[in-house]
Amino acid sequence: MKARPIFPFWFRQRQIQSELINDQAVRLQGPNLPLCEVRIEPEEDGRNWRATLFRINGEPRILASAQAAEPHPQSAWQLGFELYRKHVIN
Fold first, then answer.
1. Distance, CA of 73 to CA of 46 (rounded, Å)
2. For position 1, what pLDDT does the model report?
3. CA-CA distances (angstroms) from residue 73 to 3, 64, 87?
4. What's the DSSP call for residue 69?
5. What superkingdom does the record give (predicted)?
6. pLDDT in tens for each of the 90 residues of the chain?
7. DSSP label at residue 12
8. How many C-alpha atoms does 45 have within 13 Å on its Cβ side?
9. Do 39 and 80 meet the contact criterion of CB atoms below 8 Å apart?
10. For residue 32, is it left (φ>0), alpha (ψ between -120 and 50) or beta?
């Protein structure tokens, strides 16, 4: 199931630049912020979704990962952007 990300309103406020890598990954960068990626993927059960935040400096490193509350990819995107806000911006 393809679900293009809907970026939060605060992306503009923080001047976050996004680059869609594929249907399940987006690269993010902002002023004075490290290059990161948010990826979503279905869980093994095929219904639930997981969001993972990576910091990209040579070899990608996982900063955070969590299962979305709703069984829909858009919920995983929202969770991924919230992980980015909590772990990179704050």
1. 11
2. 54
3. 6, 17, 21
4. S
5. Bacteria
6. 567 899 999 999 999 999 999 999 999 999 999 999 999 999 988 889 999 999 998 788 999 999 999 999 999 999 999 999 999 998
7. H
8. 7
9. yes
10. left
Q: Rounded to an integer, what distance in angstroms lies between the CA atom of residue 65 and that of residue 72? A: 16
Q: How far apart are the first and last CA of the chain?
A: 32
Residues 6+ apart with CB under 8 A from 9: none
pTM of the model: 0.91
Torsion of CA 83, 6, 50, 66, to 10 degrees: 20
8 A C-beta contact, residue 28 and residue 84: yes
CA–CA dist 82, 79 (Å, integer): 5
